Amino acid sequence: MNQFLKFDPILKDKIWGGRKLVDILGKNSNRADIGESWEISDVEGDTSVVSNGDLKGKDLKELIVEHKSALLGEKVYDQFGDKFPLLIKFIDAKEALSIQLHPHDDLALKRHNSFGKTEMWYVMQSDEKANLIVGFKKDVSKEEYLTHLNNKTLTEILNIDEVSEGDVYFIPTGRVHAIGAGVLLAEIQQTSDITYRVYDWDRQDSEGNYRELHTEEAIDAIDYKSQTSYSTSYSKKENEVEEIVSCPYFTTSVLPLKGRLHTNHSNKDSFVIYLCVKGKVDFENADQKESLSKGETLLVPASLKEFSIHSEIDSELLEVYIK
Which of 44, 140, 232, 284 is the most buried (most CB within 10 A)? Predict the structure, then answer.
């Protein structure tokens, strides 16, 4: 399997969504509240469909069933079978998202027959003073957490960071978090749509309804311990792949690019995903040339090991695979 794969984005209306996915990332929509663009998805009911090349019109599930380890990699296919293990999104928060968390694998399997949801964020753009909520300021008890939740003072014990372009946050399962108003980011996560929403700012939808909260489910899923810092430090060097985050579910690196780079993934037994977060990049092998602009995503099958990446302007890619 030697084709670079692009997919039609799956756009999601959200009560907190805006227009940045259209105005900044070039997504095609007239709607005013687009909160998420699912770039690569195998979530039930939201399977990505190929938008380019000979496989145009086929969905991701069909490709996995047909090509198996040639697409996923042998170890990845052995572990996940016909299920694509990652969900790739761009998210625009015109308003703050709910304060939420995700259950770990065992709890998600027991309660929802699903994977857990470990994820990471890469900030692509942020308005002045825009922030992210990630974790607690200090260790708290369940009782202390519930007191603040019931008193609507939860933000008093949460860690709130102002953010800017290039900031990275790793969100393991159990960590309370929320994307603040004015943040546009890329999200890499396990294939799961299980979220425990604990506080939604008392807002109502257009019909006056409140969204469902998951107070009881969340209590046993929360990690009540704090961290010294929640942001991920990393370095960048032009035309070099620098690892940012590595966990059992995914490894993400950053690649600032200008000029031409020969790429060889012979040391990886995994598909590789590229997200263009700045500029424009061309991917080329003997059979195909594919362009990737800011806000676009590319899936490289595990069997496609060597190709070149080229950019005439200062560009930046995120590279994602499973070790």
Answer: 140
Query: Which residues form the domain of 25?
Result: 10-219
Residue-level pLDDT at 223: 97
Q: Does any domain span residue 315? A: yes
Would you tell me how many other CB atoms lie within 10 Å of the CB of residue 61?
16
CATH code of the domain in which 251 resides: 2.60.120.10
pLDDT for residue 284: 97
Residue 175 among the catalytic residues: no
Three-state SS at 79:
helix
Low pLDDT (below 70) residues in the chain: none
Distance CA 110, CA 115 (A): 10
User: For residue 131, how many C-alpha atoms fall within 13 Å in the half-sphere facing its CB?
Assistant: 13
Provide the sign of the torsion angle of the four alpha carbons 217, 184, 10, 52, taken in this order. Answer: negative
Do 255 and 203 belong together in one domain? no
Structure tokens at 320: 């994602």
Q: How far apart are the first and last CA of the chain?
A: 20
Mean pLDDT of the chain: 96
* Catalytic residue (choose from 175, 197, 203, 211): 197
- Residue for token pair 């969900």: 87
The count of structural domains within the chain is 2
